[in-house]
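Bench notes, afternoon.
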Amino acid sequence: MARIKDVKLRNILNSEGKKALEIEITADNNLRAIASSPTAIIPGRREVKTTNHINESILNEMLSKICNKEIKNQKEFDNIINTYMKDLGSNICLPVSLAFARLMAQTQNFTLVQYISDIANCKLKKISPIPLVTIFSGGIHNLKEKGSIQNIMIAVNIHPFSRAVEVIMEIYAYIESELKKKGILKTYGASSGMIVEKMTIEEKFAMITDIIKILKYEKEVSIAIDVAAEHFFKNAIYTYQGKNMDSEGLKDILNQYIRKYNITYIEDPFDSDDEEYWKKIKLEHENLNIVGDDLFTTQGKYVNSELANGIIIKMNQVGTLTGTIETFIKAKKEKMITCVSQRSIETEDTFMCDLAVALNSNYIKIGGPRRGDRIAKYNRLLRLEEDEKENIEE
């Protein structure tokens, strides 16, 4: 139980060098906790919305409901926060929820991982989530490739996480070096994926495949893609790489990639409303992880294992820790794989790492190993690996 004495809002900088909101909560015993929320370049249309301007009167009303009162648990707190979601948006409501969680963990003398696993009734395991690491950025992350695959990633199925990081750094640096030699590496995208010129999708797949083979990681490392098809779909037509096509046409292209390369994970292969083709690609590839992001937007009301066998978990898509956990639990009941994910525009907050470990997520999507906002996630996971023995029940 915690009595909140004060809530402060301050502006910090996000990964774009723009303003983001940080929340600091102080309890009457002077324990303090802070949290901030990431945002999307273009939010999925099913997500709870963010707001650009703070409605001071509504904010003060919410604060009056949570300050100087005994709040028993996270669910009670988040139920209060959730009533203001429509007006205040997830960029305000989520960091309030997460800061309260950190405060409650301190109050109960728990680590954050222990606190999350306790309220989710989730027993901790020794195996850490498989990192998904962005290698190439396209789509809305690279406007010169608008209407293309958003992220080409690698899935590094190696444990412990510290060993996976060594492999990630080795592969990423090798590819980076080769691109620099060719003079085609231009910059880095939102998720620290590399942005290149004069390189086709197939050439990118081939380069990743060849370097994985050269470094002898074929058994442990595979290719993962985030198609983000919602962003190039309009009026029942997909405009993929400058060509208009129907759902069957896009499926044929994706199937060509699947047949030719070691792709084990596909995210958002079709628009959220194109349910027929979600079902088709899932039936055609029973051993492939077909994962919904814009399809489900971390909201239980959308979760449907007939459409996909995996779900992306992004806390700010639903706006509270409780809502996130409820969606996660529903997905696990439907036997879906889970992937806790970053957003395009990040802060240094690493709550998502504790969440992924606490809930035994199958995957964690953390971006490429460049830039401080992404590196913070890598470093948090490395520290959590050290804490593993304390947290896990034998």
